[in-house]
Amino acid sequence: MKQTEIYDSAVIGGGVMGCTTALHLARGGMRVVLVERGGLCGEATGRCGGTLSLMYVPAILVPYAIRGRELWKDAPRWLGRDVGFNDRHGLDIAFTDADGETLRAEMELRAAAGAPIEIIDGNQARKIEPALSKDIVAAAHCAQDGHALSYLSGVFFHRALARAGVDIRVGTDVFGVEGGDRGFVLRTAKQSIRARRIVLAGGVWMRKMIGWFGLDVPIIGRVTQETISERMPPILASGVRVFRDISLKQAANGTVLVGGGRGSRWIEDADRETVELDPAVVNQVMMNALGSARRAVPALAVARAVRMWTGIEGIAPDNMPVIGPLPGTADVFTIGCQRSGFTAGPFMGRLLADALLGRQPEMPIFAPAFDPARLLSMAPVDRERGVPTV
Amino acid sequence: MNTAAPVVIVGAGPAGATAALSLAEAGISSVLLDDNGAAGGQVWRTGAADLGPPLAYTDARGDELRRDLKRHGDLIDHRTGHEVVGLFPDLRLWVLEGGETVTSLHPKAIVVATGALEVFAPVPGWTRPGVYGLGGLQALMKTSRVVPDGPVVLGGAGPLLRLVAAQLASFGAEIAAVVDAAPWPSSGQVLRLASQPGLLAKGLAFEWGLLRRGIPVHRGSAIVEVAGDEEADSVLVAPVDENWRPVDGPRRRLEARVVGLGYGVRSNVELTRLAGCEHTFSASRGGWHATRNRDMETTVENLFLAGDGGGIGGVEVALAEGVIAAASVSERLGQGDRLKTKAAKARGRMVDLVRFQDALADWSGVRPGILAGSTEDTIICRCEDVTRGEIAAAVAAGYTDIGPVKMNTRAGMGLCQGRTCTPALQAIMASETGRPLAEAGLPTSRAPLRPVPLKALAQLPLDEAVE
Amino acid sequence: MTRFRRTTPVQSLVSVTVDGRAMELPEGEVLAAALLVGGMGRFSDSVRVGEPRGPLCLMGSCFQCVAEIDGTPQVRTCRTAVRAGMTVALNAPSSASK
């Protein structure tokens, strides 16, 4: 690349949102650079459990999640590789009548938005997933669920992006962005990068990125902890969630992944290293999560944990994505901070790319509910009450 | 069981056991955790009592150490078969007992004394059964008096290579050859090694043990391939350059039913990494290790580190550091300076010992050429079957830090958590990028360090405060 | 084909089942050592390629010597003592992590 090359678009942040946006922009004919501080899909995307579900998302996002899940299923066609798509049933279970009622209310909203979710009782849940505990009183069931191998998505995106002609700059930390008469200049530890258009796809680091343009938005991080077991004989055939608590799944290679846990923390400063070392986070949340896992699936008592890690999701106070033009500076766009973003990610990226390429997106992407401008007047997250879930 | 101890020491090798004994001398009780069945670490490992005559070149101080620990049983709570699988910056420990139960300890001070790990250089065929670490072959002798049957070829560098060869030979094992990557030490190196005449004499004794048995030693050479049908039956030996990179030249194939490999040792950093200590790279001390001040304290307050875990220094340095760490802990706990004189003496000994260690590393410390001496198809990570070619491809794609390389290739993400392949992974990255070894970085370690039953973690008592 | 031999007499032997076969092994002996002397070399198959693997470090670090012991998978034989009546399955479905 020549020092003076001006890219049509610079995408900052190489998670699922940034990667798919860059991929489709390049396929649409733009000259694209993707700049990532670490490796592709090395943060929330690669660290999450790869759940593909319609049972997590705010109702308004259900149609997007349905399309996103279809895209993961269809990955060989658009990504060139199967990302270990596992077509499973999903179950969200409740141990108390009170939780069962809240579960029903939430799931009915998602069902009304198009998710094929039904409320069933404990016996019906155990018919679908015999490994479940007898203590379950109610469950939501969705036939469209499953997971993909999120931790391998970076490898597959890398190949597809390179083939599409995207200039991939991994290991490149962006310090700031300056506007100029010839577009923008990205300041990095290596050489500067020039671009006419900027897409900010920084996940939990979105607040910092938006700060480069003189704005402050109340995006904060939520720490999610994951524990993985060694390979085990088949125990779980479906994706299981304990309502507002943990998620449980068994991969094709036999490893069981336990994600989440009560007491997960909100953090201002998105420094993952610090979070991973904080024993308050590690110990208590992990114990809560593993306790819940055993309660939900008693057969897990014999499982052995081999590793734990954390990931951080960026979250807006209304729990809605941050996608659209950034107010105040033309040609700057954001994408990300979406609940259950792994599921819908490939679709959101494609929609944004279509909008930037001047095409008609399949579904609205510059929607008021996603607009970054809404955040400017929004109060920070109430950490006690959390964010709306549906 | 003494749960009132304010100090937990991890590792009952020379450093950790000495720290415990020194603390006991000052009247301070400690919990001494070790995963082995008996104290002594790798260097002073022992087996059941009825093994017959002692192993050749065995240091009697190991038995002395075990006797002393028993004698101070009132103050030293020595727990064998206990593995520390978690260590957090607030000094909380997770301890796995017998692979089944987990307890949490929360002492006022911790001395980490987990020693070293053997350094392996992957070459084609090194994954075949029949290839063992030098330390492993030695452990079989020490604990079980089990020795190879049939021709043995040992390859690597440093004192352990000679010691193991001489010990195996003393049991009548057929040592077909010793393949040493290092050349003869230079006269300057010999002169510096002579600053510790006792240690130099030990080394010469190992060398003499080989010479008088007529065991061929191929210097400036390395095992560059292990061949065989399913298990090893021969090795290929080739010359190496000054960086220990295999080069063209006469190659010879040697029959070998057992192959021993080992290129010295490196600090075991998994606990200090987990605790968030700062680490530095020092080629003369075995590569990466946690940084310490002169009181043996790491950058995490009240977390002390003694022995090879803080940079390779050998058993004499470990003994001295055990004393110094104990003195620092004693002062920190406000238990007075009863160990001050002893610690000052230990510090005095350290100066010369470290000089000796530098000379030893200068002569036989592992060079990156052999660590990256693998071919495209060589498996580097044995747990996840990751080849050198896959690692090189990740580096070529722009991944130049060890974290993203691991995530992209899965190298170092298996059951052993990278304990076996990390030095090779770092050297291959350095070789592929042309950057110094230190710039490849140090991988993150993650709890639990060993597989732990889920039910044990879920029932972990949060606060077994050790006060 | 054994590649190791014992240089001291065995004190007491106990019965152990290895891969469904009855074996007499020295009580209290390091299981990996006893299996090596007993002629076992291949302990497991690697996860991706399915290559034969055996013990490497013999000091608890490398996890290459794992076997299923009394129903628990992935137990390090170099950290396990021989007990009367124990059941050992080599080359059991191997494990890695995510």
Q: What does this 3D model show about the protein?
A:
The complex is a heterotrimer of chains A (390), B (467) and C (98). By secondary structure, chain A is α/β, with parallel strands linked by helices. Chain A contains eleven helices and 19 strands. In chain A, strands 4, 5, 6, 12, 13, 14, 15, 16 and 17 form a nine-stranded mixed beta sheet that branches. Chain B has 467 residues and is α/β, with parallel strands linked by helices. Helices cover 33% and strands 21% of the residues of chain B. Chain B has 14 helices and 24 strands. In chain B, strands 3-2-1-7-21 form a five-stranded parallel beta sheet, covered by helices on one side. In chain B, strands 9-17-11-12-13 form a five-stranded parallel beta sheet. A three-stranded antiparallel beta sheet of chain B has the order 4-5-6. By secondary structure, chain C is mostly beta strands. Chain C has a domain at 27-89. Chain C has one helix spanning 31-37; strands spanning 4-6, 13-18, 21-26, 44-45, 52-53, 66-69, 72-76, 87-89. In chain C, a hairpin with a 6-residue loop joins β4 (44-45) and β5. The chains are: A alpha/beta (390), B alpha/beta (467), C mainly beta (98). Chains in contact: A-B, A-C, B-C. β10 (146-148) of chain B pairs antiparallel with β1 of chain C, so a sheet runs across the interface.
Short overview:
The complex is a heterotrimer of chains A (390), B (467) and C (98). By secondary structure, chain A is of the alpha/beta class. Chain A has helices at residues 16-27, 44-47, 62-73, 75-78, 97-112, 122-128, 153-163, 206-211, 272-277, 279-296, 341-356, and strands at 6-7, 9-12, 32-35, 86-94, 117-121, 138-147, 167-169, 174-180, 183-188, 193-195, 198-200, 220-231, 239-242, 246-250, 255-260, 266-267, 304-315, 324-325, 332-334.
How would you summarize the topology of this molecule?
The complex is a heterotrimer of chains A (390), B (467) and C (98).
Chain A lengths: L5 E2 L1 E4 L3 H12 L4 E4 L8 H4 L14 H12 L1 H4 L7 E9 L2 H16 L4 E5 H7 L9 E10 L5 H11 L3 E3 L4 E7 L2 E6 L4 E3 L2 E3 L5 H6 L8 E12 L7 E4 L3 E5 L4 E6 L5 E2 L4 H6 L1 H18 L7 E12 L8 E2 L6 E3 L6 H16 L34
Parallel strand pairs in A: 1-10, 2-3, 2-11, 3-7, 4-13, 11-19
Antiparallel strand pairs in A: 4-6, 5-6, 8-9, 9-10, 12-15, 12-16, 12-17, 13-14, 14-15, 18-19
Chain B lengths: L6 E4 L3 H12 L4 E4 L27 H11 L4 E4 L2 E6 L5 E5 L3 E5 L3 E4 L3 E3 L12 E3 H11 L1 E3 L3 E5 L2 H12 L4 E6 L6 H7 L3 H16 L4 E3 L1 E7 L6 E6 L12 E4 L2 E5 L2 E3 L2 H5 L4 E4 L4 E4 L12 E3 L8 H19 L7 H25 L3 H4 L7 E3 L4 E2 H9 L5 H8 L12 H12 L18 E2 H5 L9
Parallel strand pairs in B: 1-2, 1-7, 2-3, 7-21, 9-17, 11-12, 11-17, 12-13
Antiparallel strand pairs in B: 4-5, 5-6, 8-18, 14-15, 15-16, 19-20, 22-23
Helix pairs in contact in B: 1-2, 1-8, 3-4, 4-6, 5-9, 8-9, 11-13
Chain C lengths: L3 E3 L6 E6 L2 E6 L4 H7 L6 E2 L6 E2 L12 E4 L2 E5 L10 E3 L9
Parallel strand pairs in C: 2-8
Antiparallel strand pairs in C: 2-3, 4-5, 6-7, 6-8
